[in-house]
Amino acid sequence: MKHPLSFAPFSSSRPRARQLTLLIALPLALLAGACSSAPASHTASNKAANTPESLRLLKSLEAEIGEARCSSDAQCHSLAVGAKACGGPEGYRAWSSQHNGDGKKLQALADQQAAARRAEQSQGGMMSNCAIEPDPGARCQAGRCALRPRPAAGASAM
User: DSSP letters of 55-101?
Assistant: First the structure.
């Protein structure tokens, strides 16, 4: 009498453990292949659709800022980005007037990005730490604009 788990691909000389392993592994492999067979373009479009608008605008803003090349501190400026749920920006980016002129286009992008961030926070019921993010200002460092370092906690401005 044949074993109930035996069928043509398996000979009776194979160990039973190997037969059971193959019986379990084959359906799992087929299932995994079926789950991962989504076209690459479909996956890429899902990622784009799931990217928050504020993040897309922030990346666009950073691309517009570019390398922020400079030859003096006077060409470097800081720009508030994002929005905290209880008000104020989430942070700052350094930019160069050598490349971006008066910065009106950057400011418009930053305003759009902050509005998108506020809308996302409102829709998601998000909260923030409400800490004030002071504008650090920017300086020319090694030929590129960079944010000035923040003073150490407890350091006096005097």
Answer: HHHHHHHHHHHTT-B-SSGGGEEEEEES--TTSS-SEEEEEEHHHHT
Give the tens place of pLDDT for each residue, 45-74: 445 557 789 999 999 999 999 999 999 999
Q: What are the tens digits of pLDDT across the range 135-146?
A: 999 999 999 999
Nearest to 143 by CA among 75, 62, 77, 59: 75
Provide the terminal-to-terminal Cα distance of the chain, rounded to the nearest Å.
95
pTM of the model: 0.63
- Residue 74's φ and ψ, nearest 5 degrees, are -65, -20
